[in-house]
Design brief:
Protein name: EAL domain-containing protein
Organism: Hoeflea alexandrii
Bound molecules: ligand C2E, magnesium ion
Largest sheet: 8 strands, mixed, barrel
Helix content: 40-55%
Shape: globular
Number of strands: 9
Keywords: Membrane, Transmembrane, Transmembrane helix
Oligomer: single chain
Distance between the termini: 69 Å
Strand order of the largest sheet: 1-2-4-5-6-7-8-9
Strand content: 15-25%
Radius of gyration: 21 Å
Number of helices: 12
Length: 291
């Protein structure tokens, strides 16, 4: 009967829910252990100048080095970290590590900019901007080498402290980037009330960028919008030489994506950068862009 089917469905649903809750609880427990034992690693993905293909900086991307599951990406744990408040500790680990790394590169005479992602939850902490500034001071890291990436969704949230944190960070020279631009709650009018320095065009725009058509025109308009607002524009998620060339031709300032490199361990990044100095890729790109 229908009633019986309903009961079966309810039972199925309940057992599915229990599984979801259990796996969340397991992840929460694993994250707590990882915070205590230092099982997080920061990977770095290079960003390249769209004018001369030199490396301008990196984006810091966190990974959880899980004792049984191996390397776990942020897509599998950031949400749970946000729900449980563990994002404060994880965020602090990433800020410490990335800023320390930036200062080290600076001391070695390479001014590699480092861009760090933060969650909305971190902005709820009234001490957030002071925390970033004290980490910069502690490592004697020039503030203008550091960018804080926030998503468009954070920018539109009614947390009073968001604009206060942005003001405080920009006052010392830290740059603010709007990440995944074009995918969030796109109330363009609200952009006028916000101060930011860099606009990162979401990678969903990249797939059609290298052929004539609507996708390319939308990308062109977004890049132009960023430039008109006085921002540096970064196109992320480029995987092919055609996409890289198109992004450069549409006037963006920097390009990031698997075409250049996946996010790497710090030691692999150093090797990659050295190899790249004599890499024919740059010449090949020049000729593609020149047509
Ligand atoms: P995001 O900030 O937009 O970072 C870019 C993501 O796109 C990264 O995924 C990167 O590996 C991936 N990506 C870069 N180039 C390409 C490409 O050419 N093709 C494709 N298919 N993907 C590409 P990842 O590392 O898994 O990070 C996912 C998201 O997790 C990030 O998106 C960011 O929102 C969040 N996240 C990463 N690290 C942190 C962190 O330390 N704190 C916080 N709060 N969030 C973080
Ligand atoms: Mg980002
Ligand atoms: Mg992004
Ligand atoms: Mg994202």
């Amino acid at each position: 009967s229908i009633a019986l089917q309903e009961t079966e469905r309810t039972v199925l649903f309940q057992s599915w829910m229990i599984e979801v809750i259990k796996s969340r609880e397991t992840m929460e427990r694993d994250l707590r252990t990882a915070i205590a034992d230092g099982h997080f690693e920061v990977y770095y993905q290079p960003k390249v100048s769209a004018r001369d293909w030199t490396v301008t900086g990196v984006e810091a991307l966190v990974r959880f080095n899980h004792p049984e599951r191996g390397l776990v990406g942020p897509g599998d744990f950031i949400e749970i970290a946000e729900m449980t408040g563990l994002i404060y500790d994880i965020g602090l680990i990433v800020l410490e590590e990335a800023i320390c790394q930036c200062a080290e590169w600076h001391r070695a005479g390479q001014s590699t900019e480092v861009s760090i992602n933060v969650s909305i939850e971190q902005f709820r902490n009234t001490e957030f901007s002071n925390l970033v500034i004290s980490i910069l001071n502690e490592h004697e890291c020039p503030a203008d080498l550091v960018t804080i990436e926030i998503t468009e969704t954070i920018a539109h949230t009614n947390i009073v402290s968001v604009s206060d944190h942005i003001k405080a960070l920009r006052a010392v020279g830290v740059r603010i980037a709007i990440d995944d631009f074009g995918t969030g709650y796109s109330n363009l009018a609200q952009l006028t009330g916000l101060k930011f320095d860099i606009l990162k065009v979401d990678r969903s725009f990249v797939s059609g960028i290298d052929s004539e058509g609507k996708a390319r025109e939308v990308s062109r308009a977004i890049i132009q919008l960023g430039k008109n607002l006085g921002c540096r524009v970064v196109v992320e998620g480029t995987e092919t030489p055609g996409q890289v060339a198109a992004a450069a031709q549409l006037g963006c300032d920097e390009i990031q994506g698997f075409f250049f490199s996946k996010p790497m361990k710090r030691s692999d990044f150093d090797t990659w950068k050295q190899l790249r100095a004599s890499n024919p890729v740059r010449k090949a790109l020049d000729s593609i862009v020149a047509g």
